[in-house]
Amino acid sequence: MPAQSEAQQKAAGAALSAKRGETKVADLQGASKDMYETMTEAELEEIAATSHDHLPDRKED
């Protein structure tokens, strides 16, 4: 499942960093904290690896 926006891609990257122990979980907030708690490392890798090209800044509802 690729990221649908740059914001989602960046949040997944932050959550992935915490999963790997590279950053503190306490530093996470908002969507990245939710992603950390509910997604596996493999799922986060897939979203974080999405290219920024042609992604909107934020997903439109």
Radius of gyration (Å): 11 Å
Number of helices, where a helix is a run of at least 4 consecutive DSSP H or I residues:
3
Could you give a short account of the major beta sheet? none
Strand content: under 5%
Question: Ends: how far apart?
Answer: 18 Å
Secondary structure tally: strands: 0
Uncertain spans? none
Helix content: 40-55%
Which term fits the overall shape? globular
Q: Pairing-aware structural class of the strands and helices?
A: mainly alpha
What characteristics describe this protein?
61 residues; 3 helices; mainly alpha; Protein of unknwon function; DUF3008
Describe the structure.
- Residues 51-61 have a biased composition (Basic and acidic residues).
- Residues 1-18 have a biased composition (Low complexity).
- InterPro entries: DUF3008.
- This is Protein of unknwon function.
- Residues 1-23, 37-61 are annotated as: Disordered.
- It is a single chain.
- The chain has 61 residues and is mainly α.
- It has a domain at 6-43.
- 49% of the residues lie in helices and 0% in strands.
- It is built from three helices and no strands.
- Helix 1 crosses helix 2 and helix 1 (6-19) packs antiparallel against helix 3.
- The two termini are 18 Å apart.
- The relative contact order is 0.29.
- The model has no long low-confidence stretch (mean pLDDT 89).
